[in-house]
Amino acid sequence: MDEARPAASLVVVRGIGKIFRNGIVALADVDLSVQAGTFVSLLGPSGCGKSTLLRIIAGLAPHSSGTVTWSHEPSRRSIGFVFQEPTLMPWATVWENVYLPLRLAGTSRGDAGAAIERMITAVGLGGFERVYPRELSGGMRMRVSIARALVTRPQLLLLDEPFAALDEITRFRLNEDLLRLWRDYDCTVVFVTHSVFESVFLSERIVIMTKRPGRVAYEVPVDLAYPREDSLRTTPAYSEQCRHVSLKLAEASQ
Amino acid sequence: MNGGWHTALARIAAPLAVGIGVLALWQGLVELNHVPPYILPGPVLVARTLATDGPSLLGSLWVTLRITLSALAAAVFFGGLLAVLFAQSRLLERCLFPYAVILQVTPIVSIAPLIIIWINNTFLSLLVCAWIVAFFPVVANTTLGLNSADRNLAALFHLYGASRWQVLRYLKAPSALPYFLTGVRISGGLALIGAVVAEFVAGTGGSETGLASRILEAGYRLEIPRMFAALLLLSLTGILLFAVLSWISQRLLAHWHESALPQEE
């Protein structure tokens, strides 16, 4: 409530380790602190365990050692998760897909209606409520997925390489829209990506991870003011940040 | 548009032309070689027999159809129920699935006599035989479907604290629907086969006799044209059953499933 309050940690990850059943060490002693209201990216080469870390934070995967501590005990509704694929129910309309988290929480259609329609409009899909996922483009499906994750007004939004499968033009547009939603919905975002450009454009802080076993190698603050718009991508400041992060990533990947 | 019209014509006309050609050839060969009707009747004679014996054969068809549809309904109900129970408990699936397989692989002809002895009611005993044949595809397909729900969607349900019932109702059941409908379509044909086989085993006794017993009876009396007429009715029933079940499946999946989508233009 108090605007002047210093950013408190929403989630603190301490000494997280993950060993798969086949003996592969995916994560070793990962420390990460996510401040409330911030936008953090997890950046690293594929196989560095960043997706695993995200699933552990969400409580979707067990960890072998360490702790995940929330600043206050979260009700299950306070997490939103977006997968690499849109992961929509093909038998349900856009409206029904966005309704899912509220339906599971026991909210009636009538009570949920206004929030759902507002959410669908917020992701730019107004008018597509009655449409089935197969009739939508890949980018639009991902918008539905984001709407579903945000409809419960979660404190923490976790995204696992959500735009990796999209073309660049669509990805740029969704990047911008995601920043707008982050501001409007006032949530905390942890965003997994393997794109330096994407992480610099989006985040306040980039956590760079090493290859197997995954550890936090560097934490790089991004020194670019919000609101960030598409025009930022052509500025020297942006290029310089990307160069800096690329160098760090190369160091971490060795 | 023109092309679409042509394809539709070809789809109906091509098999129809083949059918008419075969029938004509059949009739021609029978007449040319003076084949006696008790060996092989021509299609014209079969059609004429169907017209005269039609009403009495239709009565028998109704008996067979009642057994078939009741067996199919029982297969859908118990098969679906068993699959849902399997999806709830792996242990239960491990315990019972092998026995469902045994029931499936044992030829119905070999157990039908026992069932007919054990169950006094003819209708009920035939129904049980047809059900044994028909229920496995529903169980196997639906179980597979219930276990094929998208893993990430399942994770999402977990994240939102969904109850077992909610997972079943909103995730597993819709995911299983296409599989279930495939099972039902296969079961429809099998229920008819099961009913006919069981009738063959049961023989010609009883007051209400189905089409299979009429075929047997006609065979004993060397009334081969009537045999063909009854056979034709059975085939038409099978085709109709399959068509109706396919239509229902198509309607239920029309909005979303790949199998029911119109072709790309």
State the gist of this model.
The complex is a heterodimer of chains A (254) and B (265). Chain A is built from seven helices and nine strands.
List the helices and strands and how they pair.
The complex is a heterodimer of chains A (254) and B (265).
Chain A (H helix, E strand, L loop, with lengths): L8 E11 L5 E11 L3 E5 L6 H9 L6 E6 L8 E4 L11 H11 L4 H14 L15 H13 L5 E5 L7 H18 L2 E6 L2 H7 L2 E5 L6 E6 L14 H18 L1
Parallel strand pairs in A: 3-7, 3-8, 5-6, 6-7
Antiparallel strand pairs in A: 1-2, 1-4, 8-9
Helix pairs in contact in A: 2-3, 2-4, 3-4, 6-7
Chain B lengths: L1 H31 L10 H46 L1 H16 L2 H11 L3 H25 L4 H9 L4 H39 L8 H10 L3 H30 L12
Helix pairs in contact in B: 2-3, 2-5, 2-7, 2-9, 3-5, 4-5, 4-7, 5-7, 7-8, 7-9, 8-9
Write up this protein.
The complex is a heterodimer of chains A (254) and B (265). Chain A is α/β, with parallel strands linked by helices and 254 residues long. Chain A has two domains: 165 residues, P-loop containing nucleotide triphosphate hydrolases (Rossmann fold, 3-Layer(aba) Sandwich), CATH 3.40.50; 69 residues. In chain A, 35% of the residues lie in helices and 23% in strands. Chain A is globular, with a radius of gyration of 18 Å. The mean pLDDT of chain B is 89. Chain B is flat and about 75 Å long. The relative contact order of chain B is 0.12. With 265 residues, chain B is mainly alpha-helical. Chain B starts with a helix and ends in a 12-residue tail after the last helix. Chain B is built from nine helices and no strands. The interface between A and B is medium-sized, with 24 and 20 residues.
Descriptive tags:
heterodimer; A: 254 residues; alpha/beta; Rossmann fold; 6-stranded mixed sheet; 7 helices; 35% helix; B: mainly alpha; MetI-like fold; 9 helices
Q: Classify the helix fraction of chain A into a percent range.
A: 25-40%
Q: Mean pLDDT of chain A, rounded to whole units?
A: 90
Rg measurement of chain B, Å: 23 Å
Intertermini distance of chain B: 11 Å
State the helix count of chain B: 9
Shape of chain B: flat
Low-confidence runs of chain A: 1-5
